[in-house]
Amino acid sequence: MQIVILNDAAAVAAYGANIFAAQLQKKPTSVLGLATGSTPVALYQQLIAKNKAGDISFSQATTFNLDEYLGLTGDHPQSYRYFMNEQLFSHVDINKENTFVPPGDAVNPITACKEYEDKIAKAGGVDVQLLGIGRNGHIGFNEPSSGLCSRTRVKTLTKATVDDNARFFAEDEYQPHLSITMGIGTILEAKKVVLLATGENKADAVHAMIEGPLMAKCPASALQLHKDAVIVIDKAAASKLEDLEFYQHIEAENQKLQAHLATL
């Protein structure tokens, strides 16, 4: 893991956006893994600005989202397809036919999961996968107890996740308790993973992910196994790390090395 600790949420979003922008500049046909939730929104706003400025293009890119609520159609305001259209796809030069979100309205969700895996494989795999982290350590909708080799599947949401997401639903509105999500094994196959976390409410999960043991109780701890995982967090999210100064020192040395290599 590369641990990057920045001052605030704005800096975290900018750092993450620069990784995705660099990927598109290097490989315009990139396959991007995307996420929903409050943390990625600022990153998407940065990418929209870069696209409008002509610095990057999504015209040849393909995207796969991590997850979707089971039982919601793509035009439902609380669906993740709707979220992605509103927060990114409708504002950049991407071909929406090349944007994939697990089908929450699938007639046969089990078959749809297999088909989603097949689409990712046919596209050549994900080049860069964006992740957030839940307070209970979930990534995507891989809740605690998820298998570390799991594939795209139907997953029951924990009460903690349902409660966290309840703020997005009206009091009398149907809130799904099931989802379709990429599995942890699917996520780990991405060539690069970028996880963003901000705020003190994520500090326990960040600590468990980075310094805790590899365990199904904290699904994000599986990123300890990834060869190119970048964890970008603000000081509040990093506040419970026991070796905070060590991570800051290592990242400073890494930046010096990258600057030196750029001169060669």
N-to-C SSE string, H for helix and E for strand = EHEHEEHEHEEHEHEHEH
Widest sheet, order of strands: 1-10-9-6-2-3-5
Shape: globular
What is the oligomer described by this structure?
single chain
* Category from helices, strands and their pairing: alpha/beta
User: Which regions have little confidence, pLDDT < 50, spanning 5+ residues?
Assistant: none
Total number of helices:
8
Helix content: 25-40%
Beta-strand share of residues: 15-25%
**First-to-last CA distance:** 25 Å
Quick overview of this protein structure:
It holds the Pfam family Glucosamine_iso. This protein has 264 residues and is α/β, with parallel strands linked by helices.
Strand and helix map with partners:
Blueprint: E1 2-6, H1 9-26, E2 31-34, H2 38-52, E3 62-65, E4 67-69, H3 80-87, E5 99-100, H4 109-122, E6 128-131, E7 153-156, H5 159-165, E8 178-181, H6 184-188, E9 192-197, H7 203-211, E10 229-234, H8 244-262
Parallel strand pairs: 1-10, 2-3, 2-6, 3-5, 6-9, 9-10
Antiparallel strand pairs: 4-8, 7-8
Helix pairs in contact: 1-2
